[in-house]
Amino acid sequence: MKVIKSVLIAVSLALVVMGAHAVSVEDFSKHREFYNVKISPDGKHLAVLINDEGRKTLAFLETDSFEVTYTLRGSERDQAGDYFWVNDERVIVQVEQVRGSFEKPLNLGEIFAVNYDGGKRKMIFGYRSKGGIVLAGHAGFLLDNLSGDDRHILIRKQLIDRRSDIRPTVVRLNVYNGREKRLKRAPIGYSKFLVDNEGQPRFVAGLDKDFNAKLFYSKGKNQDWQPFGEEFEGEFSPIRFTQDNTGIYALKSVDGKPKGLYKYDLATGKESLLYRSEIADPTHSISSSLNGVYGIRVDEDYPSYHYIEPDLEEAKLHRALIGAFKGDKVSITSMTRDQRLAVVHVSGDRNPGEFYLFDTQKMSAKFLLSSAKWINKSELAETEPFRIKTPDGLTLNGLLTIPRGKSKNLPTVVLPHGGPHARDYWGYDAQVQMLASAGYAVVQVNFRGSTGYGKSFEQAGYGHWGTKIQDDILLATKYVIQQGVADKDRVCIFGASFGGYSAVQSAIRTPEAFKCAIGYVGVYDLEMLYNEGDIKEHTWGDAYLDETLGKESADLVAQSPVHNIDKLKAPVLIIHGKDDLRAHFEHALALKEALDKRSHPYEWLVKDKEGHGFYNEDNILEANQSILRFLKKHIGD
């Protein structure tokens, strides 16, 4: 398929010129207008998930005319979440509940089904369903859409409970009447299934009570689970069966190095390495309803893609689109059965997200929707990756965003990510762009302990949350100062969750480096994690904390901001939600009390009904305005 030149021409014709207004803090505080677009298997209809005055609505349109055929609006209590086309007429929807105690909707595993014209509407799974053999308190999540079966899907069914030792079950669910057929129960809790090409669950991976990963395998239908992978050292994660079901594609890591993509023969045990980065794990699989997983994305610095079956038409199209959109991230959200039409999502550091309808016969791309049409892309700042070496030999990947038209001696915000076992990626980030638009250089760094760079890199942060991790953050700060980008006398640090902890802890560890610190839904007393928040509610919670945080009480105290306020010089802004289940509100109260005892200057913004990150747009705007005022007060703009 000779598509590259044609795609380049078609995309250039489809691009829409945005308005010339400057982007405001209000613009960065809004939820996106369109969350997803998917096309029906026959190509006659589109489904679009829309933000409608703060609530999600699922609309169906005719592909040719864009005439609306039906709109599934949320009720006072419910709204549409993620959705999937099952056949030419029917869509299943994961229901999100809007509950009184939370601003952010919750997915409790209910599944609703509806036709594109609004016909045959029915709650087919969940505690409020009426037509199936469904026990109260069970949640269901799509596992496989069973290609070739227009009436059934596979779901993972699990009791609604925070305990991770409850074993889920694979269930075949009728999408019209909600009837169930149980196929297989997992042998371990907190687990995920891999289904073969005949719809049989064959692999399951889970965590035991000691936070150890376990892998089990079934030879086929009606065959019992048996341990798999005892001969493997390191990590082994199956991601797809081969077309003939005789082998699997898997991600494997040895000696703590980044994971490679392997093909593994189940009969002989022979494995073949297809691709491995020396720096980064694969970020995620590239998949479709037609071909399953057909590639992987890897983010060393910018995203790159590697294909399991490069001769697939969809893989060829994806590769061509990557070139056409000049390095932006590209995903094919859905494709028609005949592979003629595809919906393509494109995003990048200066693109919050756009949807296109691509015709593979006409070789043309038609612009559909922008996720945030009020964002003027020409006003956004570029984000560029960088790498630095630590004194003990680790390579740290970072991101630097510099305000448009500026380059030197800038007020700077250091923005450590949450987790700590997570990572930052190149791409659009509303908070980063908000700060850059206000005149601040923004520094992000994937410090030791971050995921995505191999297990050894992650384990290098274990027990060092408040020490070596913070040293890595300071190293990135020094780097941008040495490069002449940051004014060393105008640097603040700001983060959310673990990033909020890092903001205060780094300002304590190196008090001369930062002129202010902003903690957003942060943890500030490490010992409190054993008693407050939702980590402790998991079966493996204590084991996870023991391994990643450390067991010695003296070390936890020494690395906890609440016990070391006497070393702090920077004024602090504390932002928190009263209903935070991860970083419990008690953390914010403990930090406030410690600051009060020392008469240390701070500002305080707390909101009812908000959890681990604000969801209500008014609250997001108020938080963003407070952040910008606080930064301007202490380092200018």
Can you describe what's shown?
The structure is a single chain. With 637 residues, this protein is α+β, with helices and mostly antiparallel strands. The chain has a domain at 380-635: Rossmann fold (3-Layer(aba) Sandwich), CATH 3.40.50. It contains 11 helices and 35 strands. It has an 8-stranded mixed β-sheet with strand order 28-29-31-30-32-33-34-35, with helices on both faces. The longest helix has 19 residues, at 617-635. Residues 1-20 and 131-136 have low confidence and may be disordered. One of its GO terms (molecular function) is serine-type endopeptidase activity. Keywords: Hydrolase, Signal. InterPro entries: AB_hydrolase_fold, Peptidase_S9_cat. This is S9 family peptidase. Residues 426-636 form the Peptidase S9 prolyl oligopeptidase catalytic domain.
